[in-house]
Specification:
15% strand; Aspartate Aminotransferase, domain 1; 2 domains; 14 helices; homodimer; 388 residues
């Protein structure tokens, strides 16, 4: 059972055998020349995925560690920041800032709605004294399946000098994000999403503008001190012992990503989103995010129907069909469920998940007929084959 | 060449195939019941290795991250602490404290000498106002190969209320350290040493006394917030996505460690230390740590002879014999080299390393005769076989 579980949560995601093999080698000294060559190669390739000329630093931590680095290296206690919140991870940015005594202007958006650039514009226009030092936002909010429009948010910031700090942990290499072109100053990503690796690494890019701000920063953290990361990367190394095995896996997964090509990946992810959304509609379930453009290509959130318990649905999916999807988090527990479609996923995986979901809904009496969701998936698959 | 490199640096250390295989499996959801069972098992087994009844928390970070957690969760800015320094990692504890505005009383000990409990006693006796909130020390100082006497340091602290905070990153499961019996309040360990795993996980135990101090603490870090770790461990989980693959490996390596038995491991490590030290003496090289009792059973530091360059020695070891040992760090660069003997090492590995070292020294003209160091190793091996 366990070995063939279809894991469709929004991370950790499934891992290609090539990547597993790459990690499963005798260890290397982290200060050896051979390992430095690996650090050099992956750092260059990360820049390609981030579409940036700036350094991308590798942190041995979960994504939250890199979110903390994105706060403490660029904001001082007493500073004012704007945090856009579409769900749990926006809330986390607010919490981290508060932890460090940063004054948070928090803007929550309606459940299932993206961050509104107009509101960002209004808030920044009202900030005559330019006291807001940074705008924090998720590119992809994992908890609700929202894809924010980072380009539009940056445009809405106009001439305001605040840094744009983006959590793209579940967005990078899923949805297009040309970091330099769109002008994002600090961007965070994580290994266990589209990078098809186990959790344990996070990546962070820093613009020249952000480095200037960093110079005036108290830089509380020791472990997450990006100045140390910057200094060490000039020697193709890291300040502290990195998760060497994961970095060896990263080398392989970056090759997979760049060989497939970012444009092809973005297209594939749009197809996955379409497959799941069309199936959901066909099954008369309700999508949390109505607007197609704001719906995440990484994860689809679906409302739990009134007469069904998430727990029952999940038990059938897990026990009968060995399919693992995710429930809601915090306030959304029991109210939504989420199908992840990030990374090492293919059409037939999602078709399988939809088929399992159908059977579970059938067993629970929510639908009376089988095959409807699967058919919707099939139609999307064939449509995209024709277009290709 | 690469696959059969003999890696004898003080971490990352070599990894048993069983552990590599345990990590090399399809990923598990980190909030799944199955993964919680793993977290529960490894947490219980970590307590056995730490010889503590207190929780041991798993952090997804290098050891330095856990060192930072050991500062920020128990010390406030403006507090006074005593930091005992035998090398680079003692210095790091001082740096982390200073980063957070903690007033550091720094006591450096002579190169190659252990922390002197008498001096700890004197300093704490002079602290009439009991202003010193914590004493920081390495059990095993990786940079110089010193094993500090934690038991004696705790005894020297007598009735002083300061916390005893110990970095046992390269000491845990190498030298005996009954955390509860010796009264250490906060103890840090890391995956890439005796736990025979790649880098990326750190472990930290917290005493009841330390938790009481924690209540009065500002608890700056978000990612390293041990209150969150504590709360989550009651549900057999972690606050943030953990390095799942490494934790699956940890499950296996803890089984290996506990099956071998801590007492047997400590004995084996003492033998390794004896093998290397006797070989070094036989080769007329100079040990950095003269006192046998203060010499680390994890790593042996050796002075680079006057007429030899470390770089030349290292090149021969690496290129001719595929043996990787470590040089000195920071101020000790070029002045010492270090042979690690932690974790997945056996007698014959060290014998091989000594044989390679001999050949390198012979090539460099430092010795005129071969076999002397190897013979010393052989004698130690056979002596221990007889005693067993």
């Amino acid at each position: 059972m366990y070995e063939k579980q279809l894991l469709l949560i929004p991370g950790p995601t499934m891992i290609p055998p090539r990547v597993l093999r790459a990690m499963s080698v005798p260890p290397m000294g982290h200060r050896s020349q051979k390992f430095s060559q690996v650090v050099k190669e992956v750092s260059e390739n990360l820049k390609k995925v981030f579409q940036t000329k700036n350094d991308v630093y590798i942190l041995t931590a979960s994504g939250t560690g890199a979110m903390e680095a994105a706060v403490t290296n660029f904001v001082n206690p007493g500073d004012k920041v704007l945090v856009l919140v579409n769900g749990k991870f926006g809330d986390r940015f607010a919490k981290i800032n508060k932890r460090y005594g940063v004054e948070v202007i928090r803007k929550d958006f309606e459940l299932g709605k993206p961050a509104d650039p107009k509101i960002v514009k209004e808030i920044l226009l009202e900030d005559k004294g330019q006291e807001i030092k940074a705008v924090f936002v998720q590119q992809n909010e994992t908890s609700t399946g929202i894809l924010n429009n980072i380009k539009a948010i940056k445009e809405a910031m106009a001439d305001h000098p605040a840094l744009l700090i983006v959590d793209s942990i579940s967005g990078m290499a899923v949805a297009n994000f040309p970091v330099d072109e769109w002008g994002a100053d600090v961007v965070v990503a994580g290994s266990q999403k589209a990078f098809m690796l186990p959790p344990g690494l996070a990546f962070i890019s820093v613009s020249e503008k952000a480095w200037k701000v960093n110079e005036t920063c108290k830089n509380y953290n020791f472990y997450f001190d990006l100045q140390a990361a910057r200094k060490n990367l000039t020697k193709d190394t890291t300040p502290f012992t990195p998760a060497t095995a994961l970095i060896l896996g990263l080398k392989e997964s970056l090759n997979i990503i760049l060989n497939e090509g970012l444009e092809n990946i973005y297209k594939k992810q749009e197809k996955f989103k379409e497959m799941v959304r069309e199936a959901v509609k066909a099954l008369c379930l309700e999508l949390l995010v109505k607007d197609e453009k704001s719906a995440s290509p990484a994860i689809t959130a679906i409302k739990v129907p009134d007469n069904i318990q998430w727990k029952d649905l999940n038990n059938i999916l897990l026990n009968d069909f060995n399919v693992q999807i995710a429930g809601g988090q915090d306030d959304l527990k029991g109210k939504i469920f989420r199908i992840g479609h990030i990374g090492y996923v293919q059409d037939m995986d999602l078709l399988t998940a939809v088929a399992a979901l159908e059977m579970a809904l059938y067993k629970l009496g929510f639908i009376k007929e089988l095959g409807i969701g699967v058919k919707a998936c099939q139609q999307v698959i064939l449509k995209h084959k024709e277009e290709a």
